[in-house]
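ATPase AAA-type core domain-containing protein structure dump, as promised
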Amino acid sequence: MILEIRLSNFFSIKEEIVLDLRAANIKSKNAKALKNNITKFEKTSVLKTVALYGANASGKSNIIKAIRFCSMMVLNSHNHNENITFNFKKFKFGNSSKKPSNYFIRFVNNEIEYEYSFSLMQNSVVTESLFYYPKGRITKIFTRDERLGKTKKEKYSFGSVLKRPLDVADNTSNKTLYISRASQMDREIAKDIFNYFNNTFILGYLGHNAPQIENLFNVYKQQLLEALRIADSDIVDIKIRKVKQQGKNFNANLQDLTLSVEDVIQDALQIKTYHKADPSVGFDLITEESEGTKKLFVIMLNILDIVSNNKILLIDEIGESLHTDIIEYIFNLFRAGKRAQLICTTHNTRFLNLTKFRKDQIFFVNKNEDASTDLYSLYDYSDFRDTMDLEKAYLQGRFDAVPFVNDSIENLKSILHNE
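structure tokens r here:
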């Protein structure tokens, strides 16, 4: 369960932005009716879903990209060589290139709250820290500051949790996160954190740390068929078999760290769908089904696993190739779950409706005058009442996070006729 994420100096993000999933104390009639939109950790109410809205180029995707990058640092930095440059960009303007980029996440794993953070220059780790609340009181696991001296003893400070912590530090270069190395060196609490990022915080439907499609299908086939039926699909059966690999290498898109359905399935699996009209005739999923059906197949498999096991899903553009009713179906699956969470971006304004979402579930992403990304919640607008038309207000620019398009006939003629 994620409670809070903070980012600064990543891509178009300059000053710190805060994505807070701890629910606000909203006592309106609408909010009370949306009790399934929140879950509980101890005495804290936590949002199950949040949706980020904003104009193109406002920085929505950069927020998702930055979170993915930071998660992948935890998973992969123990493999970094001396010549590596981290795969992210700092804010381009001003003197941001001389400042570190910062990441902070507050999360719950095995009913214990953790605070983990690190800061980076383009080719080195600057600071890193991990605290937790095992008995309701904050306890240090370790802190690290590469600026404090030349020796590991000067740079690191440890609590009493990790065994032989300095041995790990001695094997941790300035290209590597300590938590990543400690997990590799079999330190228990570090392995818990690594497994949280690897198994619980799912960064997309495909690639990275998403479970293998075949494994998911073997577990959730019957639930998948029922989920597709509810989604008004006429698919009545699906069969999967492995086919011989042809030596194809899959390369994730380095910008958003994603793979396509075709990349994952082609040359590895043969997936046949069977329809109500004639269940004896098979269709190849990749070549004979629509883009929406292919995506829905992968999405539903992942969501069944995520919701069943109280995981977190991070998605950029949840509406891509999907009908609005299917997007709402996905939101409703998370509402029906116990503790699973969804963080997504979208342009679909149908969900700007306070009978479907609480004010604190809706975030706006806006580009400031200096081209930096700003993030804020509808809850910040205390004067916006539940009875107002939220979709209309958003499209009219009440919350800034929309493009202001001056497409008058005169302007369009000047483009078309070069006047």
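The longest helix spans residues 213-230.
lmk if u need the other ones
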